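User: Some background: our group keeps a shared notebook of sequences we're curious about, and every so often someone picks one and asks for a predicted structure to add to the entry. Today it's my turn. The entry only has the sequence so far, pasted here. Could you supply the structure so I can complete it?
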Amino acid sequence: MNTCDIIFNVIELLFSGALVFATIKYTKATKMMYKESRETRLQKTNPCIIPFLKSSADHQSVFLYIQNVGEGTAKNVKVTINKGYEKSIKSLNLDGYKLFREGVAIYPPQYELHFLINTWDNIEKTDYIDLSIDYEGLDNRKFSQDHIRLTIWDSYHSWSGVPEETLDQIPYYLKTINNTLKQHKHKIEQRKPNYPS
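Assistant: Of course. Here's the predicted structure to add to the notebook entry:
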């Protein structure tokens, strides 16, 4: 064997090694893409039910919302209130609603239910709701979220200016007009001269 053959064999081995290395990297990338596309596909079919608190449009009351923010339909949805805001649980009898009592058979994507908790005047800063949510996807996979603690007062400042929905804007503007009229009435009363009787 001459020197040219040795150099040619070494170059051939280097190219073969580079090809093997590239094939291994390509195989790993393909596996990762497969897993990612599978997870994306599952995410597109999974329900995701979340609870949150939201103030009313006139900012006088607070509501508990249970919404399916996932892209898949949920079934056998049951919400259990573990403990928390006793005033509303007893007075509003949330256990009387089917969602809390026995569960709901179907909960489509973007579907939401809301329940009045109370007015802000009757809520203490330490009040909270602790709840659990159990549900299934259409493929019978079970999902469970235990002991979700929602501090009611945290949602007190969860609004900004004018509400987005047209119907919610009506009480907002009525309240604004009412406050403006009260201010003008107060100014007028201050300007009245005090005539001796």
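Suggested note for the entry: Residues 98 and 104 are 7 Å apart (CA to CA). The beta strands are 49-55, 61-68, 74-84, 104-107, 112-119, 128-137, 142-151.
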